[in-house]
Amino acid sequence: MRIGISACLLGDKVRYDQTDKRNEDIINLLKGHEIIRICPEMSAGFSLPHEPLEIRGNSVFSKSGEDVSSKLLEGSRSCFKMIKDCDLVILKSKSPSCGYKKIYDGSFSGRLIDGNGIFTSLCIENGITVFNELQLEEIKEYLNPADSAQ
């Protein structure tokens, strides 16, 4: 399978605070598959490190209040071109670009709400199967349906 994945989950230090979220379980699951690493925030041209970003309403803001929606949408579109033919994407939970099912509420207080990041929404709107790294069992089942049928 061809799989798009958030670069931070592979160990790239591309998060806003110049850290990664390397996930060995996900990396091990992906052995033998074609991997396309993506980071909408890097594709958008954000520097490292940069201010945290959160979605409030239909817009993305930096912690200091700058509306960066169009910049992040541009980076998301660029990444989408890279993964449009993938079988699925595995994205970093809670992220304003890659969050799936839960994102921060835009108050920079750590509060989570139901929702998806900008890139994730673009994937869903275009029929790409999306998982976040917290859905390990679901990813295993998707990658190896015969194993879960036993």
The tally of structural domains comes to 1
How large is the radius of gyration? 15 Å
User: How widely separated are the two ends?
Assistant: 22 Å
What's the helical proportion of residues? 25-40%
Q: Strand order of the main beta sheet, please?
A: 2-1-5-8
Tell me the total number of β-strands.
Answer: 8
Summarize the structure.
The chain has helices at residues 24-29, 40-43, 69-83, 118-125, 136-143, 145-148; strands at residues 2-6, 34-38, 53-56, 59-62, 88-91, 102-104, 112-114, 129-132. It has 150 residues and is of the alpha/beta class.
Topology:
Blueprint: E1 2-6, H1 24-29, E2 34-38, H2 40-43, E3 53-56, E4 59-62, H3 69-83, E5 88-91, E6 102-104, E7 112-114, H4 118-125, E8 129-132, H5 136-143, H6 145-148
Parallel strand pairs: 1-2, 1-5, 5-8
Antiparallel strand pairs: 3-4, 6-7
Helix pairs in contact: 3-4
Annotation keywords:
150 residues, alpha/beta, two-stranded antiparallel sheet, four-stranded parallel sheet
Description:
By secondary structure, the chain is α/β, with parallel strands linked by helices. It has one domain (about 1-50, about 75-100, about 115-150). Helices cover about 30% and strands about 20% of the residues. The chain has 6 helices and 8 strands. It has helices at about 25-30, 40-45, 70-85, 120-125, 135-145, 145-150, and strands at about 1-5, 35-40, 55, 60, 90, 100-105, 110-115, 130. It has a 4-stranded parallel beta sheet, sandwiched between helices. Strand 6 and strand 7 (about 110-115) form a beta hairpin. The relative contact order is 0.18. The mean pLDDT is about 95.
